[in-house]
Structure prediction request, 573 residues.
Amino acid sequence: MQTLETDVVIVGGGAGGTYAALCLREAGLKPLIIAKGIIGKSGASIFAGNMVLAGTMLDGSEEEAQATRDWVVRWYNHFLCDQDYCLDAEKWIENVYYPELDELGLYLRRDNQGQIVKSFGAARGIAAKQQGQSGVLFIDRRRKQVRRAEIPTLEETAVTKVLRGDNGEAVGVVAFHYPTGEIYAIRAKAVVIATGPADRIAARATGTREQSGDGLALAYRAGGELLNLEIQWWHASDFKWPTVWQRMHIYPNPLVGTKETARMYNADGELFFDQSTDAPNSYAPYPTQLKRLAQQTEAGKARMDGGYETGYDHIEPEALKLYAHHMKTFEKVGLGYDEARVETAPTWHYRQGGINLDPHTMKTNVPGLYVAGAVGGHNNGSIGFVSYDAFVCAESIKGADLPADPAPLPTAQVNAEVARIEGLLHDMPEGGTTPTRLKMRIRDIMYEKMGFVKTKDGMESALDELRRIRAEDVPRMGLKDTTRVQNYGWLDGLDVFNLLDASELTILSALNRKESRGPFYRTDCPYTDNRNWLVKNILSDDGSGTVQYRIEPYKLPYLEPEFEREDYFKVDW
Ligand SMILES: Cc1cc2nc3c(=O)[nH]c(=O)nc-3n(C[C@H](O)[C@H](O)[C@H](O)COP(=O)(O)OP(=O)(O)OC[C@H]3O[C@@H](n4cnc5c(N)ncnc54)[C@H](O)[C@@H]3O)c2cc1C
Prediction:
C-alpha cells in the first residue's frame, strides 16, 4: 500500500472534478484528481451534445432569458431545486463560463457571417463544433488545462472509501489503481466527490463502464445524505440496435440550424412526438417523450423496450449535414439524410437526484466532504451548471478554516478497507459466480423493474431480488483469474457493492415518493402532488444501518406550479 498526502482530494475527472481542481490550484492549494477512468475521456462530460445559453447572452431578449429560467426550474428540475441557486448559476454561466471557454479557444459553431449559430425555440442552445460533439471538445480543453497547471492525477484509479476522522469529518480516501493492483491511502484536508450523474445501473444506460453508482455509495457509507434518487432521467430515443449503440441519441431537443425537431413514430407509422409542437417550451423534452411513449405502449402501438422509431428524415439535409455530428451514426448503418429513421428504445440516463448538499456552498452534512457537479441532488447537471458547482465548491473550500496539515490516517479504517479489497481477489468457489455476472443480473433487474413505468409490486420484487443477491450470491463470488495486474474482474467485484447500494437506495427512495413527477412515474400514484410531494425526499443512515427517511419542502420564491394536484399525464412539464 502507498500513502499520499494532499490538500484536497477530488474524486472524478469530468467537468466538475477538473474545474474544481483548476480553481483550487489557482488559489494556491494542492489538489489531487483521482479518476476511475481517464481524465477527459470518462464519465458523462464527453457526451454533452448541446450547450445551453444563459440570460440574454448572444443578443437574447429578456423573454428568452425568462424562458430559459422557466425551463430550468419547471421542465428540467420539476421544481425540485433551489431557485436562487439557478439564478446565481445563470449569471455565472453568462458572465464567466462562456467568456472563459471563448478565451480557451473552444470553437462555437458560426455561420458564414461569423455569428454563433443558435437553436430555435424559447430556451436557446449552441454547439461546439456540431450538435452531439460539444462535450468531447470541451472536456479535452479541461484535460489540457489540468496538465498545463501540473495538477497531480491518479487515473484508472477507483476511490473505494471516504475516510473519517475522530469527529466524523472526511480526512481522506482509499483508492485502488487497477492497472497495477496498487492500493493507496490518501490523507487530505477536504474531499470532493465529483463522480457524475450517469450510472450504468440498468442494462441499457448512457453511463460509461466505470459508472457504478460509486459517488452515491461512497457518500452514503461515509454518513452522507442522499436526495431524490428516484428522479431518474431516461433517453426515450436512443438506437435500439446494435446493443453497443444503446447510448447513440437521436436528439429530440431543439436543433441548431433548423426549426424542425426529431419525430417519433409508433408501430403503425403514426407520428406521436415532436418537440417543436408537443413540448415547445422544453429544451430537453425527455419526460414528455416518455409520457407519450407510455401512452402508445398502453395502446399496444409501442413497447417500453422498443417497437417504435425516431428519425430526422423529414429535416432539410443541409441543416443536418452542417450541424448534426450524430448523423454519422445513421451513415454507419447505411442510411442517408432522407432515410434517417431507426428503431429506438429507452436508456437509463442521468439522475436529477444525488448527494444532499447546500447548493450555495456545495457542502454535505459530513464536515470536510464536498460535491462538485452532477452527482449532487440539487440540479440535473449539464456542463455549464456543473462548472458553476465546481467554482462554488472551490470558493467554499478556499473560505474554509482548513487545518495546517491533513489529519493522521485512521489506521483501523484503512486496514479494514485494504482487507476488503484484497479479500475479493480469490478463485471462484465450487458453484460460485463471477462479479461480472452479478453486475449484469443487477442491471437486468433495474431495467426490467425500475424502468419508466413503475409498479409498487415491481419495485418491491426488485428490492427482494437485490437483497437475495446480496445475501446469497455475493458470498459465492470469485474470480476466474487472480492476477493483480489489469484485473477488471477484481474491479467488478468492488463495483458490485456500489451497484447494490445505489440500486437498493434508489428503490427505497422511489417507494417513499407517493406521486409521479417529471421522469418519475409509478402507476399506483398517477398524479403530480405539489401539496405533499414538492419536497426533498432524503435518505440517511443514522449509524444503525437502517435507512432513515426525511422530507423537507422547497422554497418557491419566483416560480410556483399552477396546481396542487393534477393527473400526471395532463401535466405538460
Ligand atoms: C449521454 C449524455 C448526454 C448529455 N448531454 C448533455 C448536453 O447535451 N449538454 C449538457 O450541458 N449536458 C449534457 N449531459 C450532462 C452532462 O454531461 C453532465 O451533467 C456533466 O458532464 C457531468 O459532469 P461531472 O463532472 O459531474 O461528471 P462526469 O463527467 O460524469 O465525470 C465523472 C468522473 O468520475 C469518475 N469516477 C466515477 N466513479 C469514480 C470512483 N469510484 N473513483 C474515482 N473516480 C470516479 C469518472 O471516471 C469520471 O472521470 C449529458 C449527459 C449524458 C450522460
In short: Residues 1-43+133-231+352-573 form a domain with the FAD/NAD(P)-binding domain fold (CATH 3.50.50.60). The first strand starts at residue 2 and ends at 5. Residues 488-512 form the longest helix (25 residues). The chain has a mean pLDDT of 97.
